[in-house]
Structure formats: C-alpha cells, structure tokens
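Morning. Coffee machine broken again, so started the prediction first thing and wrote up yesterday's gels while waiting. Chain of 260 residues, entered below exactly as on the submission form.
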Amino acid sequence: MTSGMTRAELIDHLVRTRIAGDVATSRENNLDHYRSLAVRDPHYMFGLTFEGAWTYRDVLDLMAKSAGVVADPGHRSGQDTIDPERTVAALDAMGDRIAGALRRPDPTVIIATGHPTGLMVVHMAIARFVVTQGATLLTPAEGWTYLPGSFGRRRSIRYIDDVALLDDGGALVHTHDSAPMRRMLEEQRPDFVIADHGWAGAAGEAGVETVGFADCNDPALFVGEAEGKIAVTVPLDDNVLPRYYGPLTDYLLRRVAAGL
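Came back before lunch.
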C-alpha cells in the first residue's frame, strides 16, 4: 500500500478531475431525477422501498445535505455540484465499514457494479484487496439471464475478477436494475455488499450491510442511507475517466487497512 495522497491533495484531485466540485451532471438532470424518485418511478428506486414521504423538496434537501448539490430550489438549470469534503468524509465512513466487515471471522462479500465504463476499476481494486485480507468473494447466479422490460436484449450476470456486472451478449452494460442482485441473494447471502445502483439498493432492501457509490442524479441510495437501509453512500461523479479514480481508490483502501 503506497503512502498516497493526503486528504487535501485528494480533495484537489477530485475537483480537478470533476469527480466532485463542479460535476458534469447538469442541474436539470438532477432535479428531473429527484422528481422521478418522489413519484416512486421504479427506474430511480434502485430496488429500495421507503417509509418516509420523500417529496421532491425532501429529496432536494437531502441531496444538498448528503452530496452537496445546490440547496436553492430556485436554481433550476446549469451547473450543479458535489461537495468534495462530503465525498472524502463518506470514503472514510465506507472504509471503516469495510474494515469492520473484514475483521469478522471468515467474512463473505459480494461486489457488483452497474458502471462498466467508470466505477468498475474501483470495484475490481476493492475486490483484489479484500481477498488479501481473508474475505471470500461470492459469485452467485453467474450466467442467470433475464429480459429487462418489454424491449431490448436479454441480459445475464457475469463476473470479472469476481465483480458482478451485466452483459447483453455482446457488451457489458450500464444498469440501474435491482433484479440481478435479488436473484443473487436468493442463491447465496453474503455478510457484506459493496456496490452501486440497483445492485446496492436490492442488497440494502434485503437487510444486508451495504455500502455504495452514487452520483448526484441518483438519490435513491442517499434516501436509503437516511432510512438506515444503506450503511454508507459516497457521492461522486460515477463516469469520469477510469484512471481518475485511482487516487480515490488508494485513499479508500488505505483507510480500510488502517482499520484492520
């Protein structure tokens, strides 16, 4: 494990690469997704159910608090933000949770991502690390196939370096779907899940201790965290160049190692 960046250096890196700070996700896109969650559009629920009312304003207020988006409801277009301080604080909390899981006897872990062009590299690095610390990575339902909705190609669960993803027969696909994780948990239930999108939501909904990554236009995991179903949600742009996530991943794994 390298010495890596300091906290201040990582914050500067997050802003320069737009993982946080002035992110690429537009204000219009964020607000549209908050409205969609408020009316319980399944595509934006990530497999979670909520006890609270979670109106549009409730969701906006939570995202301002948890991710650092602009709190002013009158700001309806243009630039939106993720607070890098919140990103790093959530990385610290995630690292502590992962360390806690790894301190258990013979821990079992599922790692999954709906972001093959972005966050996959983060998940693969975490997967390699937790194995060196004695965890067993579970790979249930490999090859399970389903049709998401009325249109499109059939998708199946595939593992790369024991990280679960979806493929459509020709390519790895970006997905919000929660059905694959639900199927995996029917076959084998882990002690701990590290994931994003519907993979994380379905695990949290099932009562598995879950930590996840989420963009500022994906409020479901933040609401899940607020209601106690998701242990930690890290706010970040989830689709910058994969190499930009290297310092963030290194920081996270150093935090995990420090807790072991």
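The longest strand covers residues 155-160. Going to sketch it on the whiteboard this afternoon.
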